[in-house]
Amino acid sequence: MRISPGAVIGWDMGAALALGEALGVPPLVLAELLPGIEAVMVIKLNEQIEAERT
Hints:
- The chain is α+β, with helices and mostly antiparallel strands.
- Helices cover 69% and strands 13% of the residues.
- The chain has helices at 13-22, 27-53, and strands spanning 2-4, 7-10.
- It has a two-stranded antiparallel ribbon with strand order 1-2.
- Helix 1 packs across helix 2.
């Protein structure tokens, strides 16, 4: 993950692509699916971080 103080800003896409490749997922599938999954993950983790602050 890429983080800044108090927030998640994204994934290390190089690592995500390497993991997908190691699992046998075609690169075109990864390129299509990972950005959307990353966006939802970032939103949800940042919501959780904010909720824990209050």
